[in-house]
């Protein structure tokens, strides 16, 4: 019986954007694929290594596996190229026009609010939101920033500055020098994830700024590397297992043509856990 269900499962090429190999987002995506398999959908994960998409290679894989289900949107031109090669591309899960978008917005917004709440409650007022400059991640950056804004508004804190950079950027310390020259009073960095947070701490050290005495830094994801960092990284754990289940339920309904209802923001906020360490 199980074998028959497996053969009837609809397969998708589940495409993730470039990001660190141990990113919590990838863990969540894998968890989502695991959970949707129970619903009769096989998501075959593929990670793009660069934002310069190899359309031909992706199309060849899709012809063997099934329609492409992107985690984040491709460009209009990339979509046209894939479709011209006879490949079906589903709406990206994290795209604004995706039926699953209310779930994505709820989870990303909650993590942003949790970070801002920590910073504001610990007395930091002049904040910077730091995120990736990769265009594939623009939607996710904006969603988390929206949550950060909400948290700052609730705490009576001024609007944070947004700063974009690349992963492993050799220019980050220079970008921070320029930032401090314009706004020397910056006292906290809210980072899109733990990996950028750790890069910021290193760059701040090169700028002669101490963490957390001069600037506090907080990330998202509770990456294992964070607790070994100097100083140990304060982070928001968004519970990838439960988040993955929530995404999977929404995705299963989306692929089945059912209506998706946005989760209760208060319930989603409860999923976020502050892991307080030495950086904020």
Q: Can you describe this structure?
A:
- This protein has 280 residues and is α/β, with parallel strands linked by helices.
- The strands form two sheets. A six-stranded mixed sheet has the order 5-4-6-7-8-9, sandwiched between helices. A three-stranded parallel sheet has the order 2-1-3, with helices on both faces.
- α2 crosses α10, α5 packs across α11 and α7 packs across α8.
Helix-strand makeup class: alpha/beta
Question: Terminal Cα separation, in Å?
Answer: 53 Å
Strand order of the largest sheet: 5-4-6-7-8-9
- SSE pattern: HEHEHEHHEHEHEHEHEHHE
Radius of gyration: 20 Å
Shape, principal axes of CA atoms? globular
Unreliable spans = 1-7
What profile does the largest beta sheet have?
A: 6 strands, mixed
Short description:
This protein is α/β, with parallel strands linked by helices and 280 residues long. It contains 11 helices and 9 strands.
Descriptors:
280 residues; alpha/beta; three-stranded parallel sheet; 11 helices; 47% helix
Q: Which helices and strands, and how do they pair?
A:
Blueprint: H1 2-8, E1 10-16, H2 24-37, E2 41-47, H3 55-65, E3 68-70, H4 76-84, H5 101-121, E4 127-132, H6 138-154, E5 161-165, H7 172-182, E6 188-191, H8 194-206, E7 216-220, H9 224-227, E8 234-237, H10 240-256, H11 265-271, E9 273-275
Parallel strand pairs: 1-2, 1-3, 4-5, 4-6, 6-7, 7-8
Antiparallel strand pairs: 8-9
Helix pairs in contact: 2-10, 5-6, 5-11, 7-8
